[in-house]
Amino acid sequence: MASDRPIFVVGCPRSGTTLLQVMLHGHPRIAIPLETRFLVRTYRDRRRFGDLRDVQNRRALARWVTGSTQGRFRRLGLDADTVTGKIVDGPPTLGSALGIVFAAYAERFGKSRWGDKRPGYWQDLDVLLRLFPDAQIVHLVRDPRACVASLTRMPWWREGFDAAVATWLLAQQRCRRDMRHAPAGTYHEMSYERLVTRPEGELRRLCMFLGEDFDTGMLETRQVARDAVSSYQRRRHHSGLRRAVGSAAVDTWRTELSPREVGLVERVAGSRMARLGYTPSGECTPPGAPAMLAFLEEYGRRRASLRKRRVLDALERRHDTGPVGALLTSGQRDPAASTRGFHR
């Protein structure tokens, strides 16, 4: 039986998740849209909609997701009234309502399986698995030196170098920790470097994990970007999608980072780099005590913020009026699915 499990692509920003999204969207059975950004936001605001067994509450939720305040919905190219009707007639859980939106997007392309991509989902793997207990998580990992060099060049990144390094490190720690006890077939880690240098082999491994046959259409990234995600052509930081997949960006960090910046990355992320197969540069300046202290303060603030989010969500769940997990796929409807979710 063909799989209908949701697919979520995560990773530190500037890890190549958009490229992977386009590759997956090139598969004849899989549709993954632009970043929607309403999934976690709706989950956080779920109490405002009340008990979804009440049809009027489902209608209010549908209007929230498809309404003007959720501008990202319009990018999906869906009819709001049609989607609202499907949510109202669908199973009375939040995950079901959200899954219906993505399923409608897949139907728009004549596809039977949907996914979603947002780098920051690494912070909310618990949320994803509560909403979609049978989800498959794909984590794309890039050399932290290249990732940080790219991230700090982005005009929308205003948080500084230390914050970029901390984000990469926390993303690796959280994904590994949160998925440590996940059932087989839930979590798959990919290498950006292998994806751009040996794309077919890396995509074949991904398809095996997803339970799909590899399709050469996944390699036609420029065509997919033009046909399905054309707005990327107007974004300078996604300009790489206009070119054939290649390794040009793999080592650009060597000229974009200073020896002191390379030294800090290799000092704080060295053990994880080694496990991932990234070798030390041999040409860096070790960070001094002030630089290390500044980084540790930034890392500590971000780690504490993540812990606070988890604690607040645990408190909020006490007020849930019923299950939030989707009931759309065969795996989600399985009574054992509730035991396959997040256990921490």
Properties at a glance:
49% helix; 6% strand; alpha/beta; 344 residues; 5-stranded parallel β-sheet; Rossmann fold; 5 strands; 15 helices
What does this structure look like?
The protein is an alpha/beta fold and 344 residues long. The protein has a domain at 7-144 and 171-246 and 314-329: Rossmann fold (3-Layer(aba) Sandwich), CATH 3.40.50. 49% of the residues lie in helices and 6% in strands. The protein contains 15 helices and five strands. The protein has helices spanning 17-25, 39-44, 55-66, 80-89, 94-108, 125-131, 144-153, 161-178, 192-197, 199-210, 221-228, 253-256, 259-276, 289-317, 330-333, and strands spanning 7-10, 30-31, 113-117, 136-141, 187-191. The model is unreliable at 338-344 (pLDDT under 50).
Compact overview of the structure:
The chain is of the alpha/beta class and 344 residues long.
- The CATH topology of the domain at 7-144 and 171-246 and 314-329 corresponds to Rossmann fold
Instruction: Indicate the overall shape.
Output: globular
Oligomer classification: single chain
Under CATH at level 1, the class of the domain at 7-144 and 171-246 and 314-329 stands as Alpha Beta
**How far do the termini sit from each other?**
31 Å
Count of beta strands: 5
Query: Average pLDDT, to the nearest integer?
Result: 90
Count of helix runs: 15
What composes the largest sheet?
Answer: 5 strands, parallel
Order of helices and strands: EHEHHHHEHEHHEHHHHHHH
Q: Say which CATH homologous superfamily of the domain at 7-144 and 171-246 and 314-329 is assigned.
A: P-loop containing nucleotide triphosphate hydrolases
Low-pLDDT stretches are 338-344
Largest sheet, spatial ordering of strands:
2-3-1-4-5
How much helical structure, as a percent, in the residues? 40-55%
Task: Work out the radius of gyration.
Answer: 20 Å
Look at the helices and sheets and give the structural class.
alpha/beta
CATH architecture of the domain at 7-144 and 171-246 and 314-329, by name, is: 3-Layer(aba) Sandwich
Estimate what percentage of residues fall within beta strands.
5-15%
